[in-house]
């Protein structure tokens, strides 16, 4: 079944990780991700606004532009999470105490990872084939944010459960929709070969660790006089290319590569 | 048939690869109907998150010594394109939710965003249709997460120096 809407409630996995948790934060391993403290159940929807936001932009049109041109500046992320306070601050069996201990100290540096990648099963049995579970696996998509704890604002009045709202300050390192990778990512380009005619425009596709990732890889061509390739994987064969001309189109993602051999 | 108003289900949104058009200033119906290079994501877009507008242009309002009244000359056009798409519960499904996600999930990817008003989204392009088009690039995707709502991915596209409004399709 396709196009099934995904409710936010229950379909987000949030973890806290120590500052040295990842060897390569751009492609964390399942072991590294799963070693983090899963804090999803300790976070209240109230006051939750952590994540990435629209980037700062710079307007910089050229002399030829008749319409505005904005360039992307620094990625903006951060925000607040609000964690429940434990009934007993000495009860280590209480997740809220464990979470509080991990992030109760102002100026603590660490990583927040967030997985928003389809329906989350509660018992590690995916509801859909290849779906997301509570345990990260090779091929999961994940956001990785380096943060420092900032402000602490306790909610300790009224009839609601007591919470502490903690601001998480960005620390200059973030990876959005990174791919969890056991080792060097496996990139696969389809089709592997092609025989287009001069002037043809062809869309290639790429996967990383089995996930559709055509626009997440970096595309390059071995010979731009024969064929160019856009960052979306669209190959344009030169109009003056001749029969038997060959170019290699390469897709790269964090050390993983695969190619498409093009022969006119 | 006089004075009948246009209502819902008369909208089409797409993201086209810039290479889809031999001349983007003169798009053809055949080019717009090439589903390999023009992706119709209308049914994935959340109305409240989505914008496709031409804002007030930058202007020069200087006067000459002979101007009898104010003169405002438009300079830069300022299109605003924001797409907010639903996420799919099945991350491997081959539907439009995941198709939209793949196109909106990564920064610095260029597209020509397209809006047609007046026909259902599943009606193919024909000569005489009017296309609103803007060259845009992706920003970082923003997740919209709220209790009691469906998850969406919102892309605040950056304008990239070219837009056309109600361009007739040949």
Write up what this structure looks like.
- The complex is a heterodimer of chains A (264) and B (170).
- In chain A, the strands form five sheets. In chain A, strands 1, 2, 3, 4, 7, 8, 9 and 10 form an eight-stranded antiparallel beta sheet that branches. A four-stranded mixed beta sheet of chain A has the order 12-20-19-16, with no helix packed on it.
- With 264 residues, chain A is mainly beta.
- In chain A, a hairpin with a 2-residue loop joins strand 19 and strand 20.
- Chain A contains two helices and 20 strands.
- Helices cover 5% and strands 41% of the residues of chain A.
- Chain A has helices at residues 30-34, 95-103; strands at residues 13-18, 37-38, 43-44, 51-53, 57-59, 70-72, 76-84, 109-115, 141-155, 163-179, 187-190, 193-194, 201-203, 205-208, 211-212, 218-221, 227-229, 234-237, 246-253, 256-263.
- The relative contact order of chain A is 0.15.
- Chain B is mostly beta strands and 170 residues long.
- In chain B, strands 2-1-7-8-11 form a five-stranded antiparallel beta sheet, with helices on one face.
- In chain B, a hairpin with a 7-residue loop joins strand 9 and strand 10 (152-156).
- Classes of the chains: A mainly beta (264), B mainly beta (170).
- The interface between A and B is large, with 60 and 57 residues.
